[in-house]
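Example S7 (structure tokens).
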């Protein structure tokens, strides 16, 4: 068998990847979505390793180039799509793919890989691939009712990423590590150019310079719609974030949502605003971890739930 990087110009290889996705996950992934995430990613060259048995693609592991923030910008990657053909399982395919990809990533100067292993892959990442656990992420959830409409102020829906958001990102730094930088370039790529979902940018009237949330719809059960706050910036102004979140609850009720969900670290200055508004920790839960490469030494404080500031948008599930 032959293990090698993907040829990003090959339409045949892309077709084989999408067919393997269909076989493994029993659903379709569009070529546009794959190109957006892996082949045309603006933050680095493709990070995809394939395993071939003759002309048959039997294994795939891809990471998404990222710019993380750990005391400063570093070259990083998000561990993503793993696939092994059903006929080749339990033969060490994923471990071989990961070792090959990680060796190339280190040669390219990438210093950190991070991600959200599922319950099937978590053991292998930690025990075979040198990953360290950082956090078990819980989902803060709040049901909405007609009472949330009372007193809710007007919300400004933005057409896209607001100007000045990079400055807002810089003023929002609180000393925590970030899996992905949240400047204008990232937010535009992640939420405007994303072919997989539609996102809405919400702020207080005239308030885009100091508080912003990005949200999308999710249907957790038949006839139940949830609004997920997948990203936010609050310039270390928790009261302003609380005011926006209060109005988001009313906005969600007016738009027919049954609940609002988000991720936020206990160490975030705005976490108390979630509690004041009645958000409580619920499932789903998610593992978060990673590993470093080369001589990069991530501060020990970053290997903790309080050391990283995570958003739902860091996971490709949202």
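Recovered sequence:
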């Amino acid at each position: 068998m032959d293990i090698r990087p993907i040829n990003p110009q090959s339409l045949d290889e892309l077709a084989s990847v999408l067919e393997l996705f269909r076989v493994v996950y029993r659903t379709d992934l569009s070529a546009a979505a794959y190109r957006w995430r892996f082949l045309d990613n603006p933050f680095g060259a493709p990070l995809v390793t394939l395993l071939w048995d003759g002309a048959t693609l039997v294994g795939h592991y891809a990471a998404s180039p990222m710019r993380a923030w750990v005391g400063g910008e570093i070259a990083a990657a998000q561990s993503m799509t793993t696939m092994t053909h059903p006929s080749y399982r339990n033969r060490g395919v994923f471990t071989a793919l990961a070792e090959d990809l990680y060796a190339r990533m280190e040669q390219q100067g990438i210093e950190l890989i991070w991600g959200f292993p599922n319950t099937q892959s978590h053991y292998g990442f930690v025990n075979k691939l040198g990953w360290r656990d950082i956090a078990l992420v819980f989902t803060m959830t709040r049901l909405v009712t007609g009472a949330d409409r009372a007193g809710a102020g007007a919300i400004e829906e933005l057409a896209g990423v607001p100007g000045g958001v990079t400055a807002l990102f810089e003023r929002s730094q609180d000393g925590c590590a970030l899996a992905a930088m949240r400047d204008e370039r990232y937010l535009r790529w992640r939420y405007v150019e994303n072919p997989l979902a539609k996102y809405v940018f919400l702020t207080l009237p005239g308030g885009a310079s100091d508080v912003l949330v990005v949200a999308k719809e999710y249907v957790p059960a038949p006839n139940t719609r949830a609004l997920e706050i997948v990203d936010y910036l609050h310039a270390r102004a928790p009261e302003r974030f609380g005011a926006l979140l209060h109005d988001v609850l009313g906005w969600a009720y007016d738009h027919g949502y049954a609940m609002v969900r988000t991720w936020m670290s206990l160490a975030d200055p705005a976490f108390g605003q979630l509690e004041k508004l009645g958000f409580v920790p619920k499932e789903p839960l998610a593992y978060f971890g990673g590993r470093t490469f080369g001589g990069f030494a991530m501060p020990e404080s970053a290997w903790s739930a309080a050391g990283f500031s995570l958003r739902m948008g860091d996971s490709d599930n949202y």
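Notes on this example. Helices lie at 11-25, 31-39, 93-107, 122-128, 165-171, 184-192, 238-254, 271-276.
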